[in-house]
Amino acid sequence: MHAWPASEVPALPGKGRDLRIHDTATGGLVTLDPGPVARIYVCGITPYDATHMGHAATYNAFDLVQRVWLDTKRQVHYVQNVTDVDDPLLERANRDGKDWVELAEGETALFREDMTALRLLPPQHYIGAVEAIPGIVPLVERLRDMGAAYELEGDVYFSVESDTHFGEVSGLDTAAMKLLSAERGGDPERVGKKNPLDPMLWMAARDGEPSWDGGSLGRGRPGWHIECVAIALDHLGMGFDVQGGGSDLAFPHHEMGASHAQALTGEYPFAKAYVHAGMVALDGAKMSKSKGNLVFVSKLRRDGVDPAAIRLALLAHHYRADWEWTDAVLAEAVERLGRWRAAVSRPDGPSADALVEEIREALANDLDAPTALAAVDRWAARQGTEGGADEGAPGVVSRAVDALLGVAL
Fold first, then answer.
1. pTM of the model
2. 232 Rama class: left (phi>0) / alpha (psi -120 to 50) / beta
3. Element (H, E) at 200
4. Domains delineated in the chain
């Protein structure tokens, strides 16, 4: 599977700061110190509907992580998956009378278009669950053979008790885990499981559903969590720098994935930091496909909204915050984009050296994009009001906003 084209990232003078970011597992800020190549895995979409603003906010957050790292003169190895076979996708295809493969391919193509328009940097490896199956099957077999997994009526389940670190990603108690498991794709009430929280690794073939050769597992398809584990271990290895996604992935997805990998390898941790973006709401409720309360990036683009304004609307909120999309949020972003473009269109302006460092400092401090935007606002407000202006300043600001915030002026 191919990703989308990369926009050029301008080189800035000097060097950025190491990133301090909130780690869900420890509950506090950690300073990341990757080697020459920073490694990040961000969980991708299940492609049964177009990219909504919640998706865009999440991927925008991890685009900022990449940009901070690139500004420290590191390379970035970014991996993202596409869950191109799963129950929600099959259910949507059946509901709409579509072929599930065509639905997945069409929505993935639209996602690529949205990511390109928003100028989000693409992953080096963009891997679908279906194409990962040959690598998933041996991992499930190994977990079963080492006693960390068991069969139940043809399905294969992971035993959470096989990982001594289970529960350390989300920090939730058992009761909370059971509730979330039931809400987020688990089956804690299934009779015969060793532990209600045990997640499925391999689902035996069901009538009328797609299935693949699973070797000694029989025909079937992979569970959700093992998909990301197989892809991450294959392309990043254990102990990569950041596991990212929306806050609703902390449990069960990231919790279970970490336990799968740690049981498989005997190493700890799966990722050095677990970073989660907040949820975006509309009309008082979290945007979700099940509720249908969605604002689509593609619809805004078709309506003539500049993708740079959409991105500024996302950047106006701290990535960990839960917030609500409104017409006023977009209007403010459109107005800000106009002010910034007017400011950098002048032949000279106030010195920009301090501004570049302000943006760097804000982003290095847990991706504080709202503070970075406020700094650019102040610079733009000073434009044309000061004597002895710097002829190169507008160009410096334009390149810094592009390189660090991903907004083309």
1. 0.96
2. alpha
3. strand 200-204
4. 20-297 (3.40.50.620), 304-405 (1.20.120.640)
CA 202 → CA 34, 214, 254, 263, 391, distances in Å? 34, 9, 18, 16, 62
At 10-23, the pLDDT tens digits run 999 999 999 999 99
Single-letter residue type at 215: G
d(CA 126, CA 389): 45
pLDDT of residue 282: 87
C-beta separation of 362 from 371 below 8 A:
yes
Which strand (E) or helix (H) includes residue 60?
A: helix 53-71
Task: Determine the length of the chain.
Answer: 409
Identify the bridge partners of residue 39 per DSSP, sorted by sequence position.
Answer: 77
Residue appearing with tokens 């950041």: 242
Q: Which residues does 2 contact at the CB level (< 8 Å), separation at least 6?
A: 126
Per DSSP (E only), the strands in 247-335 are 271-277, 280-282, 285-286, 323-324
Using left for φ > 0, alpha for ψ between -120 and 50, and beta otherwise, residue 167 falls in left
- Alpha-carbon distance of 126 to 150, in angstroms, equals 30
Annotate 12-24 with DSSP letters as a single string.
-SS--PPPEEEET
User: Are residues 143 and 149 in contact, defined by beta-carbon separation less than 8 angstroms?
Assistant: yes
| Alpha-carbon span 238 to 258, nearest angstrom | 10
In whole angstroms, give the CA distance from residue 12 to residue 213: 50
Q: In whole angstroms, what is the distance from residue 339 CA to residue 217 CA?
A: 60
Residue 289 region by backbone torsions, left for phi larger than 0, else alpha for psi between -120 and 50, else beta: alpha
Q: What is the pLDDT of residue 383?
A: 87
Q: What is the pLDDT of residues 357-382, one digit of tens each?
A: 999 999 999 999 999 999 999 999 99
Rounded Cα distance, 163 and 178, in Å: 18
Q: Are 230 and 136 in contact (CB under 8 A)?
A: yes
